[in-house]
Amino acid sequence: MLTNAHCTHEWAAETAANAVFVDTEATPELRMIFNYFRDTEGAQVEVPAKAIRYATMKGTDLAVVELDTTIGALAERGVVALGLAPSAPPPGGRVSVVGAPQLDVEFLRRARCSEEGTFDIVEYRWHWFGAHRNRCDDIANGSSGSPVLDEAQRVYAVVNTTTLGSPPDGDCFLGRPCEVGAPPGVSVEGASYAVDVTGVSACFGDDGRFALDREGCALDAGRALDVLTYPAPRERPSDPATGATNTWEVTLGARDALGFFRYKLGRAGEVDCRRQEGYSAPLKLDSQDLSAIALPEAEGVHLLCALAGPTATPDAAWQPLSFPTVVLTTIDTTPPSRRPALSRGGDAAEGLRVEPIFSLPEHADFEYRFGPPDTTDCDDPAAEWRRYRRIPIFLDPRDLPARFCVRPTDWVGNVGEPFDYLLPE
Predict the structure, then answer these.
(1) What is the pTM for the complete model shown?
(2) Whether 325 contacts 227, CB under 8 Å
(3) Which of 27, 72, 134, 421 is the most exposed place for a label (fewest CB within 10 A)?
């Protein structure tokens, strides 16, 4: 079974961004349900996972899961496997996505649309090469791992992320992937992305068993240094409180007798980690100083690319250029500009309970103040603000009507201009 690595392993762990897992244990919760249709509940076939033969979120988002059954046993129960396409459809080709998004009714549904080509994308701390884009409907939480089919009903990709349902700002953050073919990285509204699987069949033998070392298997075998520490996925060049310069905070860890590395830095769209130009001369791992390199000033997604090898001479024993280690952060120096939403409860007779609504990364924290509409100026620079403590703010009936002021702060500490609300509206 093919699915996403973020479905089989702990995606939130920062070390997962460059990890390659081979032959790991499947959790009891990991299972496959066939015939998952609204009108066939009695005919569903549920099969637990036996092992996770391969999984990575490094450059792609793919997992190969062995089920605790056989193709023959499934066929006897009316379940027939989908074949893999030898290549992806060209842009404009008709495709379909079959999945079970967590919408009003959580069962399998098919959405039809067109293939739109491939794009390098970034989301949070992950970087994926050559993801297929489409604009099929009904892709949401729960769609991850859904097959994308060509017109011959062969699988050429599996869905891994989308901008559908995301807030309109905070490009490249969690839940809002962005395309990084050109800086600074832009999220495309209504776009969903799927990782390519057309070459995965070469990793299986005639006996149907997965083998990463098979000739022609083009998956990343994981020959690379560990990344022990990462920068935050979204940063400012300097600390807004102290003015101190922020740094990359990257530490590489030894593995597989790889004692040397090369690296380069650049803004996504201006640097390609899979090209030789720009890499440093080989450096000894035990003399690394990547953590002290200052973060750049320019907004957008920035990459730190690394390749590792056993000697000071780059050769075939080094980490393949096609599978670089990529560490990224998004530089954000723009204050939030979207008007925060307010949740309101109660009424003028009994009092109002007001809560500003969080929406990461742009609305990560709030300050507030309120007073009589005629004498309260939300833009008064001398006014004192109170920090919102995630407890509903109560406005007594004697305080109403009121001018309610909210000042948002984003995830990295950029403070926005105040917004005012007349309560009750």
Answers:
(1) 0.95
(2) yes
(3) 72
Backbone angles phi, psi at 290, to 5 degrees: -65, -30
CATH topology of domain 342-423: Immunoglobulin-like (2.60.40)
Say whether 360 sits in a helix, a strand or coil.
coil
Tokens 């000894």 belong to 284
Stated length of the chain: 425
Say which residue the tokens 């559908």 belong to: 164
CATH topology classification for 2-203: Thrombin, subunit H (2.40.10)
Residue with tokens 């599978």: 323
Strand partners, 241: none
**Measured in whole angstroms, how far is the alpha carbon of residue 399 from the centre of its chain?**
44
Cβ–Cβ < 8 Å for 412, 387? no
Q: What is the 8-class DSSP label of residue 59?
A: B
φ, ψ for residue 73, nearest 5 deg: -65, -40
**Over the stretch 354-398, which tens digit does the pLDDT of each residue have?**
999 999 999 999 999 999 999 999 999 999 999 999 999 999 999
In tens, the pLDDT along 270-294 reads: 999 999 999 999 999 999 999 999 9
3-class DSSP state of 43: helix
Q: Does residue 200 sit in helix, strand or coil? A: helix
Three-state DSSP at 398 gives: helix
Answer whether 49's CB lies under 8 Å from 85's CB.
no
Q: Which two tokens stand for residue 316?
A: 């075939």
Neighbours of 2 (CB within 10 A): 18
Task: Work out the number of other CB atoms within 10 angstroms of the CB of residue 341.
Answer: 12
Residue ranges of the alpha helices (H) in 159-230? none
Using CA atoms, how far residue 396 sits from 131, 142, 260, 346, 355, in Å, is: 53, 43, 66, 10, 15
